[in-house]
Amino acid sequence: xADTIVALATPTGRSGIGVVRLSGDVVLDIARRMMPESxxxxxxxxxxxxxxxxPETSELIDxxxxxxxxxxxxxxxxxxxxxxxxxxPVILRQVIDVCLRLGARMAEPGEFxxxxxxxxxxxxxxxxxxxxxxxxxxxxxxxxxxRQMRGEMSHQLQPIKDELLDIIVVLESALEFVEDDLxxxxxxxxxxxxxxxxxxxxxxxxxxxxxxxxxxxxxxALIGPPNVGKSSLFNALxxxxxxxxxxxxxxxxxxxxxxxxxxxxxxxxxxxxxLRHTDDVVESLGVERSRRVMADADVVIALMDITxxxxxxxxxxxxxxxxxxxxxxxxxxxxxxxxxxxxxxISEETLQTPLLVSAKTGQGLDDLKRAxxxxxxxxxxxxxxxxxxxxxxxxxxxxSVEEVESSIxxxxxxxxxxxxxxxxxxxxxxxxxITGETTTEDMLxxxxxxxxxxx
Length: 455
Ligand SMILES: Nc1nc2c(ncn2[C@@H]2O[C@H](COP(=O)(O)OP(=O)(O)OP(=O)(O)O)[C@@H](O)[C@H]2O)c(=O)[nH]1
Ligand SMILES: [Mg+2]
Fold this sequence. Notes:
Layout: E1 5-8, E2 15-23, H1 27-34, E3 46-54, E4 59-69, E5 80-87, H2 89-101, E6 105-106, H3 111-118, H4 124-135, H5 139-149, H6 152-177, H7 184-206, H8 208-216, E7 218-223, H9 230-238, E8 256-262, E9 265-271, H10 281-296, E10 299-305, E11 324-329, H11 336-350, E12 355-356, H12 365-373, H13 391-412, H14 417-435, H15 441-448
Parallel strand pairs: 1-6, 7-9, 7-10, 10-11, 11-12
Antiparallel strand pairs: 1-2, 2-5, 3-4, 4-5, 8-9
């Protein structure tokens, strides 16, 4: 018996249509009571246009299109009904309330997906892909999530798991049936096969560098003294007048965060308060925050004003060790020669050629975008192949590689098959955790806590 769960499947707030989703054993009973006029008409894989009402008061709630997915041919594998109502939060709340009164309970975050997993509709990596798909911020990450949702992860892992299992069988049977140790030729053969597996897993794990970039993106902070044009550059990169810009030093006092993408890489861009000593309490708190942002960013853009008579990178000492792009702004105010000699002076100090940019005219912005992503992507189409994008998957593959590696070493030392096998069984179990074949209850709880309600 699966208790019946209900949740709003569309975002809260007003919209053209809002969908309430019900899944479990009594969805048909609930729906029939809410639509007495067409109760007998409900057919699997059909939508019905019907009025729905509160069975207790007979009060009309809305005209709605209800769709019935009979288990197991549904998202969760159970009977599912979706009420597509007018997207008024009041109506949707009423529909949910009536469902609750008629025997459903509110779904936990990710509970629809958890049921899909429990009923074998999807493996764990596929369910996680549904979550990633909803959260994806770029077309490339959508593409990746769709591939994973359609089983690409298990497809990638299956040959590795098959081969591991094959080797385990060979070693297990050697343990069972052979009186003496395995002959050298067998051991060499098995080591070679394990080496090949290790390599395959390592190259899969290596895709995580790009995969993570695609999924999590980069945190990019604009840092510098007051009035150099940080907020102007922030706006220019976003293509909107998001931050306040004035000629007064100390305009920005708090951080501003906005999202943009550069060639399919999600970027969190952060504008900060100008770095300087100040007696203003609010501004000095802002400066303190700027320092913290600097420590946390993947890329720091260190801005200077090219018209500044005392142009220097002093003040950026704290950036040591960070991934810094030095940038001279306001190039529209100087001639080319002045700009180039300023750039030379800075590069002598930093051993790095600064970028010449004008936030006002937009000149140099393309170079800046290229410089931001350059250290993180090596080729032109970094997101075209299959990638590991989930830290959980990456960690499991990495641990599995370690197990295989130590098994190879044990094999070469002619250790007993039992010890070698232990590592290989672990390796296989770790790979199984990716798709959920060997996942423990509390791991599932942890994973599903990252889902939203109604999913
Ligand atoms: N000509 C020119 N003026 C610029 C450029 N970028 C910024 N400015 C001007 O410089 C002044 C300061 O710009 P902001 O963007 O507010 O500078 P900020 O670094 O955010 O300053 P704080 O928030 O006070 O730290 C404003 O008057 C801008 O119009 C540029 O590329 N060219
Ligand atoms: Mg500012």
